[in-house]
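Q: Here's a chain of 505 amino acids. Please give me its 3D structure as C-alpha cells.
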Amino acid sequence: MIRSSFTGFNTARLGLMASQNAMEVTGQNITNVKTTGYSRQRLEQSSLFGSTNIYNKVSDAHIGYGVIVNTVSQIRDPFVDTRYRLQMANLGEFDKKLSILNDLESHLDEIGGGKDALAAQLSDFHSSLQALQNSPGDVTMDNAVRGAAKSITEYLNLYSNQLKELRSQMEGGLSRDTDDINKLLSQIQELNISIMNSQANGLPALELQDQRNLLLDSLSTYGKISVNYTSTIAPSGASIDTMTLNMTMSDGSSVNLLKGTGTPAVFQLQTSADGSLRVDITPGDGSAKIEGAAFSAGSFKSTLSMLNDDGSFDGTATHGIGYYQKSLDEFARVFAKTFNTLNNLNGKLAGKDLFTSSDGQAINAGNIRITEEWMKGTIRITGGAAADSPAGDNSNILNMISALTGSQTFTDGKGGTVFKGSFQECLEDFRNILATDTKTTESTMKNYLSIVQDIASVREGISGVNLDEETANMMQLNKAFTAAARLMTTLDDMLNSVMGMGITK
C-alpha cells in the first residue's frame, strides 16, 4: 500500500516546526545568558508513529510520521541543588558567626592592646602605684593613681555599653531575619500557586520555577532545608508538580515549612523566662507549634548561640556575647573588691572604699566607678598595712601592687572558677579566646565557602548557559531546518513527476 502522498510533506512540516521551536529555545537561552538564576532550557521532542494501517502488508516497512514537540524543560540536577543548599546552611552559620565575632573585635579593642586599651590603663595604674610607694601620702601621686583607676572604670563602662549595644543590634537583626524568612515562605507559596495554575493549563512556567529556586537558595542560609517534588495528573491530562519544603532540626526531625499551595510555616522571635531569645515555629502542615527550635545549621543557629551561650559561665561550648559581658563584669567585681578590701585593711578601717557602683547595685562593668570620697580627696590610698601605721609606711601600697600582679580567682557566680591568674593575664585570656574563636570560625567559613563555590561551579556547568554550546546548536538547527525544507522541495518534485506521468504534449 502506497503511503499517503502528503505524509512525507507532513513529516517535513513537523521537522521544520521542531527546528524552528528549538531555535527559539536556543535564542531564549542566549538572551538570558546574564540573567541571575536562569536555568538553561531545552526542547523535549519524540518520534511520531501513527497507528498501523489495516491495509499494510507484513512486508511493508513501518515508517514513522515525523517528530512531535512535547514541551520545554529546564536542565537542572536535583542532587546538585540539594548539596548546594545543605552547604549554604553551613556557610550561612559560620558567616553569621564570623560577622558577630568581627563586631565584637571592633567593639573591644583589647585585641590590639594599643595605648587606649584597657590593658594599657591597667599598666598605668600599676605604674602610678609604684610611684606612690616611693612617696606615700603624696597628694599628686595619689591623684595619679586615682586618674588611672578612673580610666579603668571608664573603659569598663565603655566596653559594657558597647556590648549592650551590640546585643541590641543582634536582637534587631534576628528579628529582621524572622520577618525575612516569613516573607520568603509567603513568596514561595505565591509562586507555587502561579506555577501549578500554569502547569494545569499546559504551560511549564520555567521562569517562575527559576524565581522559586532563587528564593529557595536564599532560604537555605537560615537553616538546613530539603525540597521534594511529587507529580500528579490533572483532569486535563497535564502534569502538575507539588513542592514539599521541610527544615531539619538538630535532633534530625523535620519541620514542614510549606506544602504546595498550603499555608506556610510562621517563625516568631520570643523571649524566654530566663531572658534568653528563642525562635518558635508554627509548622505549615498544622502540627504542634515548636517552642525554641533547635536549628541544625544556618544563621539562626549561630545568632541564637552567640546571643544565649555564655561559654565558661554556663558550661556551653560557645563563647557568645554573654561570655564577654560576664567576663568584664567579673573582672570589675574582683578588681573593685580586691582594692576596696586592701584600702579598708581587711575591715580594720571603715569608709575607705575606692570603688562603688553608680546605681546602688552590685558592682559590674557597666556601673563601676570610683567613690565620691576618693574623687573629692576626702579619702586616699591607705599607705600602711596596719591601722596604726606611721606616716610614710608604704606596706599596704606594696600589697596593692602585689595584688595587681598576683593571682586572682574569677568565678562564674555559682561556685565555679572560670579563670585564675593576674588581672593582666585575665585580659590576655579574654583576648586570646576572642582571637582564637575568630580565627577558627574564619577558617571554617572559608572551607565551606570553597565547597559552596565548587558546587556552584558544577551547578552552573549543568544549568548555566554556555554560548559556545548554544552557537553550535544554532548551526546544527539551521542545517536541520534547511534539510527539512529541502525534503519538502524534493517531495514536491517527486509528486510533480508522478502527476505528470502519461501527459503528452
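Q: Can you summarize the key feature?
A: The two ends are 31 Å apart (CA to CA).
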